[in-house]
Amino acid sequence: MSDEEKELHRWETLPGRSGEAFAAARARALAAGQPVVQSDMGVIYEVLQNGGRREIKRIDPPVRSQKGKIIALR
Predict the structure, then answer these.
(1) For the chain, which residues make up each domain, given as ranges?
(2) Using one digit for the tens of pLDDT, what is the confidence trace for 20-64?
(3) Quick one: which H or E segment has residue 38?
(4) Which residues share a beta bridge with 36?
(5) Which helix (H) or strand (E) holds 53?
(6) Do 59 and 45 meet the contact criterion of CB atoms below 8 Å apart?
């Protein structure tokens, strides 16, 4: 495998690897008794170690977009 192919492979697998790293960090924080923040269907929640959730704030729901599409943020 050439260096260019290796670099392309790293970029192609980045989303999956970042998701794994995020899930591991979230699990470590919860195991340490620390709350984590997550969004779900337009609401930001604080998630506690015992699985409980507390609503923090309502936000606009996620916007689906196509690759390369430009979206203006307010």
Answers:
(1) 3-58
(2) 999 999 999 999 999 999 998 889 999 999 989 999 999 987 778
(3) strand 36-40
(4) 47
(5) strand 53-58
(6) no
